[in-house]
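Re: that chain you flagged

S.,

Sorry for the slow reply, it's been a week of failed gels. I finally had a moment to sit down with the sequence you sent. For the record, here it is as I used it:
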Amino acid sequence: MAASEPGSSEFPDEHDVVASVDGEGSAQEYVIADITADGAWLSMQAEDAPDLPAWR
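Prediction finished late last night. Pasting the C-alpha cells below so you have them in one place:
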C-alpha cells in the first residue's frame, strides 16, 4: 500500500464555495455553489435556510 501524497486526491486541492440569495420576494432561494466544478450547486427556499446563529 502506497502512502498518500499531499495533493494526490481525486479531488482538486482548491475549491471556491460561495453562497447567495437569488430572486425576489417569496421566490428567493438560498444557493450554495462550488464555482470550480460544473454542476456542483444546491438551493433551497430562502425561508427554509437556517440562519447563522442556528449553525453555531
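What I noticed first: The first helix runs from residue 52 to 55.

Talk soon,
D.
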